[in-house]
Amino acid sequence: MANSPIHDAVMPPSLCLADNSPESRSSEDMGLSSPASCLSNYFIGSPRGFTSPLRSRREAFLLINYLQDLSPRIDICDPSKRFGREVPKRARQLPLLAYSILAFSSRHLAMITGIDDESSEEYHSYALRILIPILDDPMSSLDENLLAAAVLLRLYEEMCDVDTGTHLVGCARLWNNIPDFIAQGGLSEAASWIMLRQNLHISLIKGEPMQVDLNKYRRSRSFVDTTDEDFANRIILLCCQVLATCFSPGAQPDYETWAHLGKEVASWHDSIPAHYSPYHHSDDKSTSTGVKSAFPIVWMMNPAQVMGYQHYCLARILLHISEPRLWVSSLRTIEHRVAADKAAMKDLHIAIGLGIHNPSVVGAGFTVHHLLFTFLFDIMPKSIPLLLPNQHQGGMLRDAIHRDNMGQRREQCRDPDTNIDLDVSVVYSTDVLAARTGTVDSAQPTWLSGRSGNSFSRVSPSLLDPFNTLCESPERLRQLLRYRRARDLPLVKAAGEPLFRIDQQTHCVVLQGLGNEDGQAPLLTHKSLFHSLSLLLALAANDYQQNYETMHHRSQVLQSLNRDLCHFGSDSTILHTITAILMLISYEYRVRDTNTGPACAATHIHGLQTIISQRNILTSQYSVSHVTQVQRALFWQDIICSLATGAPRVLQFDNRGMFTRLREDETYRSYFTLPQGFIPHTYGWPAAVPAVFEDLNALCCAVDTMRRGTRAPIIFVNNDDKDISVTPMPLMEDLDDEGYPLCNSQANLQIRLVDLLSGTRRDGSQSEETLIYRACLFAAYLCTYRLSEGVWGGYFAPEKCVTEILDCMTDFTRQMSPWKLAPDISFWLLYMAGGLTKSQLHKDQAAALVERYQCFYSTGYGQDWELVEMRLKKFIWCEHVMKQKMYRFWQECQIGCC
């Protein structure tokens, strides 16, 4: 790191305490368009009563809250404070701005008081009913007032329990379509810089690419003027450029590009005036009151300087961890990585210190929140999550984390699908882990236990290495085994499908297809399995993004597997090697932001299929049932890999003729009909799709018939035997002891569905018809999964389907008046996602979409459950699986509307 163009992160204190408040720009420089000139556009199609929203005492109080508490945060990098001075003036004449302010302010008050206030959603709905007709009208003018309203609505959206990102995308599209927004100055320029910060935060914490054209910002007055706010805007733009260049999906900057960015960041630091430096910077961890602090004390003169220096530190952190030399295979790479980690950690401490020791700058608290969220598993030491809450008990971080906490309260309650109730704030505390997790029978070896009568092995996280026999310290693995993400499902459940799960009573990890004849297996003493299990759990803990931890375990897995395969068949660990490869396949198709995942997964699937085909080697040490279980697991890895990546399947699975035989049976022939709700939409769909939906509809009818007991179990002819034999169609939950319990009929449908989905992924079209089509395929796959999943039923595949459905519907709602085109099928798709998900986060997101767009449905569309059920039955419907779940989701939607 000696050649790094970035300055050292030491910021010398300055004794210059002169007041350098920025001078306000003159009104002539603001470049404001006349509000009156735009009024006609803002009343086109407006409902009656929108002309004067600021009338009541309550609305006046909300406006005061906006002026006194919220606008200073918004205008932190605007020397003219336009959102605090100009926007409220225009709101007296422009209802769109008024309702946007009221929605934002009322949502903020509800968030900080903890008292639900439905008026925020009502104000938001009014704003949308004004905004949508303007955007739909090609004759209306798109001006700075629209952009300001969109920015305010995005601020409202950031405070909601479920952040759909609708207004963020809308802001970006509006801004990108008007080429001179930033050059106009005035309110449009101020809104543009706020929108850039909003995009930066989302891109940082979600790993998504920037949605705005960064080159346009170079035309801003901030690159001419020299106020403190202008300097802050410059470094924020540089930070966005570093993030976009080095961390966008598929980005691989060369050393010259990286060094150029580093020089620009360093030049910013050289160009700032003397008064911009901290007037006090000390590494002494004692404050003036004698309270110990874990972070440097850095005091700045005004909020803009705090924001500027925080983003300077953030830019340096991103540059440190993205240096191209860190990814080059050489003997000095480890040394470079250690140096980069230390340098990044130093900048991270300074950025957090700026947020903690300048508590009046609320925006700095948000930045700290985003830094902690982003770098929690990458470069932060274990002490930071435990020390930070004790350092700052004030309200600075409260606003930043309150939105997450409100959405997490329901998730932290134990439910039937939750095995471990563990809060993320104590993930590094092993003592607390031992105290809060369920107990394990002490008479049983807790690091490993076998299940008599079958071939399962278990791993308990309570004591992984009592005799110090593992290849690495097991403490991190123990934390991962017990880790439950605060807004997600238990980690092992989300990561394990279809290879392992957590036992409900013992909290042990039960792995499919492992074990010797006595039921015991030296599971974690096998290096490949230790690292493959750690790899998969670490990936899930990092939200399926690569980091140093996953790279370390993946490297160790590949090295260990290389040694194992060189001596394959000569020892008794063949099955462990195979299971490690199966876990490695799971990693390859789950990891995000990589183009090589599907290809690597396909390579491993091909190789493992070659190994399994050598039955003489496997059956010499294991029973045929072991080989069958491994083959079954590999088939499901292939299917789920195709579902997750959109790549075509690798293996062939002969499962033909099952539904053909049922169609020929007069008893069940009537089941094979296409639900009438799909008929208007099937035009243009591939010819194979109606047959898939007919077969799925028949399977749903069969399950309901068997559950009601009104008819004998479905039977079919087994073609594997020349004699005609009658075999009952089993349900998945009756097959728990046979490995992954998926009935062949459901397997047949899922194979056909992923084959259809792989075709849509290659097409890449985003038309309204394509979005509905893709969402229907994912909904059908989700339905097959929920028909009868048993204890082996996983979480990755169904929640992947739910995510894709919600993504399709979110994109669908951004089209021009889409809900008028397909109200029934969109209603069914949202109920499928919200009713069949086991994630409260997804349920809330689906409910928010239903509630947000209920105004597009006819009156009373979702008010009466019997009417809702009648509409849902027009599509795929299985009463045994869906009725209670859909009813509960309907109740949640009604509560949200009250």
Automatic annotation (TrEMBL):
Keywords: Nucleus. GO terms for molecular function: DNA-binding transcription factor activity; transcription cis-regulatory region binding. It comes from the Eukaryota. GO terms for biological process: positive regulation of transcription by RNA polymerase II. GO terms for cellular component: nucleus. The keyword Lyase does not apply. The keyword Methyltransferase does not apply. Residues 13-32 are annotated as: Disordered. This is Transcription factor domain-containing protein. It comes from Fusarium oxysporum f. sp. raphani 54005.
